[in-house]
Specification:
mainly alpha
Length: 206
């Protein structure tokens, strides 16, 4: 592993974690320009740090945890920005916001109960949901027209992603980072079950 690349890429991720409180402060202070540009930079770092980590082969468990934390904090900052700068839109879509927050709370709760820590799966569904969230929030704060279609797409993808993660927690016996999705977990469990049956059969035969 290239240590220099490792520190640089993790530094980009840590920036997102450090920047989140400042984005929230900017929102609460009514500094719209600071808020939206800082949010845009954070989403940009979210887009590039995972790509860089895979390109330079510096993917790590600690990096995955930092990345998940940074992603969640950035989206939280965006939601607070909606509360401050787009209250009518947030009020109009409050049901969907509560739905997503409830699913996230359930996912967090079951992960803590089973693993004793938060997940960092980075599934394909999670990546698709993150892209849709970022595009929606940036469109919301940088353009005058409210992007309803993007919002509903983000809600749909995020709902499916959170339900999938809850199911993954149920089927995955031990904590693991960078999981492709539920299909791969079920396939892996099936293969493991077959291997155990073969071993048991051999033992019984002997």
């Amino acid at each position: 592993m290239n240590k220099r690349s490792y520190y640089i890429i993790n530094g980009i991720t840590i920036y997102r974690i450090v920047a989140a409180p400042f984005i929230i402060i900017a929102a609460l202070a009514g500094q719209f320009e600071w808020f939206r540009w800082l949010l845009a930079v954070s989403f940009f770092t979210e887009a590039i740090d995972g790509i860089l980590a895979r390109s330079f082969k510096v993917v790590s468990v600690s990096g995955a945890r930092l990345d998940s934390t940074g992603d969640d904090l950035t989206v939280l900052a965006g939601i607070i920005g909606m509360l401050v700068f787009k209250p009518s839109f947030l009020k109009q879509q409050l049901f969907f916001v509560i739905l997503l927050l409830s699913l996230f709370a359930i996912q967090t709760f079951v992960a803590l109960i089973k693993y004793g820590k938060l997940t960092s799966f980075h599934t394909y569904a999670a990546k698709a949901a993150a892209i849709s969230q970022a595009v929606f929030l940036l469109m919301l704060f940088f353009f005058s027209a409210e992007p309803y279609a993007l919002f509903y797409l983000a809600v749909l993808l995020t709902t499916l992603e959170l339900i999938e993660e809850i199911a993954i927690i149920y089927f995955l016996p031990r904590w693991k980072s960078d999981v492709k999705g539920l299909y791969w977990i079920l396939r892996e469990n099936k293969s493991q079950f077959k291997r155990e049956n073969i071993l048991n059969t051999k033992k019984n035969y002997i």
